[in-house]
Amino acid sequence: MSLSNVFNIAGSAMSAQTVRLNTVSSNLANAESVSSSEGTTYKALKPVFQVQAPSEEQMLNGNISSMAGQGVTVKGIVKSDAPLRMVFEPNHPMADENGYVYYPNVNVVEEMADMISASRSFQINTEVLNTAKQMLQKTLTLGR
Amino acid sequence: MPINFDRALGIHDDALLLRTRRAEVLANNIANADTPNYKARDIDFSAVLSGQVDDMNLNQAVTSNGHMNQLLEPSLGEDLVYRKTLQPSIDGNTVDLQTEMAQYTDNAIRFQGSFELLNSRFTGLAKAIKGE
Questions:
Q1: Which residues lie below 8 Å from residue A105, measured CB to CB, with a gap of 6+?
Q2: H-helix or E-strand containing B65?
C-alpha cells in the first residue's frame, strides 16, 4: 500500500527539519562564543539536504512505489566558510597579541529566517501525515 | 450470470489506487521543499485514467476459460511529469509549497469521493447477494 509510504516520506522530512532546527539552535546559542584564534572559533553549522534515492534492491525489484521517491535525507552537516568577525578589543580577556577577538560567522537574522522556515516545513509535513492517516483509516472502513 | 468484479467496481478501484500513488508523489514534493536542485513532479491523472478507459475498451483475446480480461496496472514511473515552475529559485528547487499542499488536499478529497463510490458498489453487491 503506497499510503503507508507517505508516512515514511513525511517522517523523513520531519526528522530532516529537526536536524535543521538543531543546527539553528546550536548556531544561535554560540553566536557570541568568542575565541582568540581563527581555528578555535565556532563556525555556523548548515545541514545539507538530499533526495533519498531508492535503494538498489528496490530498483532491481522494479518496485513501482519506490519510483515516486523516498523522501529527504540529511547528507551531512557542513561548517560555513563565511569570514569570521574580527573585533579589535584589546581589553578583552580572550584578545590575541594584536588585540583582536574572533567572533563566530553566525548571521543571527539568517538563522531566525531558517528557524521559521524549518518550523513551517515541519508543520506542513505533520499536516501531510495527518491527511494520509485519514485516507488510510477511511480505506479500512471499506465494505462496512 | 457470473459476477465480474472488474465490471462491477468500474473504474473506481483503479482511481483509488492512482489517488494513493499521487498522494505519495505529492508528499515527496512537500518533503523535499528545502532540498537543493529538487524538481517537483506529479502524475498526469487524467492522462493515466484515460489510458485506463482505453484499456477497458481494448478487449483481449480470450482463448481459454482461465484468461481474465482485466484492467492493466497503471505504471507510475512512466507517468511522472515535472511541474512547470512559477518562479525560479537560487537553489534550483522547483517546489511551490502552496501549490503542492493545494494539490495534495484536492487529491485527498477526490480520494474520499472515489472511496464513497467504490463503497457504494460493494454495499450494492452485498445487498444483491443477501437478496434484501
A1: A43, A44, A80, A82, A83, A84, A85
A2: none
pLDDT in tens, B88-114: 888 888 999 999 999 999 999 999 999
C-alpha cell at B24: 505519495
- Confirm whether A110 is domain-assigned: yes
Residue A93, in any domain of the structure:
no
Residues 50-109 (B) with a CB less than 8 A from some CB of A: 73, 75-77, 80, 97, 101, 104-105, 108
Is A112 within a domain?
A: yes
CB A54 within 8 Å of CB A116? no
pTM of the model: 0.80
Say whether the ipTM exceeds 0.85: no
Pairing verdict, β A85-88 and B41-43: unpaired
The helix-helix angle for A3-29 and B12-31 (nearest 10°) equals 10
B112 touches chain A (CB under 8 A): yes
